């Protein structure tokens, strides 16, 4: 008779053994059994092939095909199940996906394993960092970049026919046929080439936009060119590459864009506008003291700026009307400073105040004499000046002698 403690231990060990390799079943979820049959390219079953099943966030369930090429796999009912093959001799390029799993039979086709080493060269020798893609019809089954020696090696792939596509910046694309019937080496020669890139720069403040001449166009890695009167600039650039384009011009905002030049001439259109600014202009440079002068405030395109604040010698003179205009009184002779502000923008100008006779110096001198208390002549009257008074005195003296 087996002791009770030993019996309990045997039962526990048996329970643990049964749990190993058995997928956990979520409470309330039922499983279905997939009968998976692995067949080769001729339709013959293949035994001793390791397979695994995964689904959503579950699995893996690992099985090995028996002598009849079959394996039984339990998975959750309705799950999307992925069947992968792990074998040294047989492979699948892509796993098999089963939608909404239910009990039934599933054929998994495999092929004998092979591999390909692609060597990319040009007229000078190996080409490193070239992109290599291997396609089976529309399916890309391998891709990567060549090492410094110009080579790229695939993982194990199905033996069969493929297309190799090679792409490298500055080189023409190259597509060649590839047959994998074991471990093969395939050489691909690529050729450097360039195409014309035309950049057009226009000012879209106008309708329609107007060409911008003398703008600097910087093409990443290829230097800077200047637009002609039609706003166009051209540069020769290597094919199959991306380029950053930056446009600048004094008085204009900078604009940038990117363009990919493939194997035909390419164009890029950029628009720029003038940098925000205002200008202040007075209708006259010289104004009779006490009179008004008309000032006009315009933006960077010469359009009127309404509501701009205008000051003269730091004192507010008012705001511009819808035409960007304002009449400003010029008090006194001398230079007067005008300032216009609109938001963060500012502009300045100046006007000269002159006396009523049009001579600023005379008006200033007269004002100075009056301020210092200098006595004026009693001789007065229209046209009677100091010189006239002297002449009159001399004439009186001559008459006295005659008498």
UniProtKB/TrEMBL annotation:
Record-linked InterPro entries: CarboxyPept-like_regulatory (IPR008969), Invasin/intimin_cell_adhesion (IPR008964), PGF_CTERM (IPR026371)
GO cellular component, one term: S-layer
UniProt keyword terms in alphabetical order: Signal
UniProt-listed Gene3D superfamilies: Carboxypeptidase-like, regulatory domain
Protein name: PGF-CTERM protein
């Amino acid at each position: 008779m087996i002791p009770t403690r030993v019996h309990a231990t045997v039962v526990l060990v048996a329970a643990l053994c049964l749990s190993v390799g058995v997928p956990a079943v979520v409470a309330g979820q039922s499983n279905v059994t997939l009968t998976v049959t692995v067949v080769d390219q001729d339709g013959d079953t293949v035994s001793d092939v390791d397979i695994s099943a995964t689904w959503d966030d579950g699995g893996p369930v690992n099985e090995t095909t028996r002598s009849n090429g079959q394996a039984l796999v339990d998975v959750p009912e309705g799950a999307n199940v992925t069947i992968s093959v792990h074998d040294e001799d047989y492979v699948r390029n892509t796993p098999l996906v089963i939608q909404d799993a239910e009990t039934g039979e599933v054929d998994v086709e495999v092929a004998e394993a092979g591999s390909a080493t692609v060597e990319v060269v040009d007229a000078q020798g190996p080409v490193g960092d070239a992109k290599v893609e291997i396609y089976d019809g529309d399916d890309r089954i391998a891709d990567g970049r060549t090492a410094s020696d110009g080579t790229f090696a695939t993982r194990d792939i199905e033996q069969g026919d493929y297309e190799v596509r090679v792409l490298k910046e500055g080189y023409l694309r190259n597509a060649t046929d590839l047959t994998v019937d074991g471990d093969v080496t395939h050489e691909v020669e690529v050729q450097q080439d360039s195409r014309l890139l035309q950049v057009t720069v226009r000012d879209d403040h106008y309708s329609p936009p107007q060409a911008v001449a003398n703008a600097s166009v910087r093409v990443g890695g290829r230097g800077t060119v200047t637009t002609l009167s039609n706003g166009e600039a051209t540069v020769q650039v290597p094919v199959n590459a991306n380029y950053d384009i930056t446009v600048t011009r004094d008085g204009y905002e900078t604009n940038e864009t990117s363009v990919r030049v493939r194997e035909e001439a390419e164009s890029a259109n950029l628009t720029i506008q003038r940098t925000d600014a205002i200008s202040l202009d007075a209708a006259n440079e010289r104004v009779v003291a006490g009179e008004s002068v008309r000032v006009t405030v315009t933006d960077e395109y010469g359009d009127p700026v309404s509501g701009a604040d205008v000051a003269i010698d730091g004192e507010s003179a008012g705001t511009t009307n819808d035409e960007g205009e304002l009449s400003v009184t010029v008090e006194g002779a001398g230079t007067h400073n005008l300032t216009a502000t609109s938001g963060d923008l500012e502009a300045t100008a100046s006007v000269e105040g002159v006396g009523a006779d049009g001579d600023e110096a005379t008006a200033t001198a007269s004002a100075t004499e009056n301020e210092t208390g200098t006595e004026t002549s009693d001789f007065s009257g229209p046209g009677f000046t100091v010189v006239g008074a002297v002449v009159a005195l001399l004439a009186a003296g001559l008459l006295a002698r005659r008498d």
